[in-house]
């Protein structure tokens, strides 16, 4: 599910934006990316369902940020792959 969520360039752009600003509301993302608000909301939903971001309700809006636990799991996973590939002796 995580790989599928990261398989769309708009979702990657949203992740990159959240990494840059640390936290934001949907309107901030709409102002940053050339996509309609309903499209942004759908991408946010997919990222949240995959556990890549989390959202907290603040008044009438939702404040989104990166879910650091998921990214820590991804970091450990890819570190193991890199170490395995580095240690392999291929023909």
UniProtKB/TrEMBL annotation:
Gene3D superfamilies: Winged helix-like DNA-binding domain superfamily/Winged helix DNA-binding domain (1.10.10.10). Keywords: DNA-binding, Transcription, Transcription regulation. The keyword Transcription applies. InterPro entries: ArsR-like_HTH, HTH_ArsR_DNA-bd_dom, HTH_MetalResp_TranReg, WH-like_DNA-bd_sf, WH_DNA-bd_sf. It comes from the Bacteria. It holds the Pfam family HTH_5. Residues 1-89 form the HTH arsR-type domain. PANTHER family: REGULATORY PROTEIN ARSR, TRANSCRIPTIONAL REGULATOR, ARSR FAMILY. This is Metalloregulator ArsR/SmtB family transcription factor. It comes from Epilithonimonas ginsengisoli.
